[in-house]
Amino acid sequence: MTTSSNMSHEPLFHVVKHQERSAVQVLLLRLVAVVCSILAGGVFIWAIGYNPFAVYGTILEGAFRSEMAIQATVKFTIPMCICALAVTLAFKMKFWNVGGEGQLIVGAIFASYFALFCADWNHWVLVVVMLVAGAVGGGLWGLLAAGFKVKFGTNETLLTLMLNYIALHIVSYLQAGPWRDPGANGFSKIARFAKNVALDKVLGVHFGWIIMLVLVAAVWVYLKYTKQGYEISVVGESQDTARYAGIHVKRVILRTMFLSGAIAGIAGACQVAGSDMTLSMGVAGGVGFTGIIIAWLCQLNPGMILVVSFLFGVLEKGSSVVQSTFGLSSDCADVLQGIILFFILGSEFFVRYSFVFRHKKGGAR
What we know:
This protein is mainly alpha-helical. The chain contains 14 helices and 4 strands. Strands 1-4 form a two-stranded antiparallel sheet. The longest helix is centred in the middle third of the chain and has 30 residues. The two termini are 21 Å apart.
């Protein structure tokens, strides 16, 4: 009687933490997730009245159909990859920096100051100063959140999130106020930068892609082979252990968040001087948040971040071609991207956990 009563109240299944899976099992899970995402996306495309094979074919063709298309795909990749690298440093320390978007924007603001008011400087001096200014601006914005964390114990997730919107409103103030283009005919916008400001092109794309590759290598070496990278890992595992080992935890947090913000700020400088040639409200365009997804999906591995960022770039460029070819709204493209991300990110759950179902005759497996 007791057994029957226990069975009636026991849930049909429960979630348990899985033993560590092998690399092959993890790879297979992620491949299954990719296949499922493609199938689910195909169902969505079919449901709105289009041929899934034609749409998927257009995405791939749109990203690679010409030299110009490939260059555009790389341009989409650059800010996403750099922002993912930026948050990787903080996440490795288990400091949940969701402010890559704001740090990118502030970096763009700092770089734009020199683009607007020092445009007659020597080209290479100006470019270097803009990149350094972008790094300093983004670093200080990240340091602000870290300072509140170590001093007052604030929640870094909420603080870095709110700082994103503050940074965006600073741009709004500048384009409607002190930096407003006097020739804008009533519109609130900042003037386009002079040609002297533009980042030089290498193989048809501004050399931000070279900066991206250098940062991938630098972050990998920094985390894997330096003392500071080791300190970040120890602080991420346990702050108490770090203190016992003689590591100055507050200093590590401040230093790492400055570096995290600085990398995002470099992405901002590359955006305004390489792609947009002006500062606007759309300078970030959500890439800071996409960078978080990429970093988490790649388990904070800089090499994988480069690969996955490129795949996201393919999806972004291909989706824009789908919109123009089939007349789909941007919302449909976003839904398709969301479906794919849902399945891929969902696979991470099954890497760590599994469902245990109740036996018919009592007890769980």
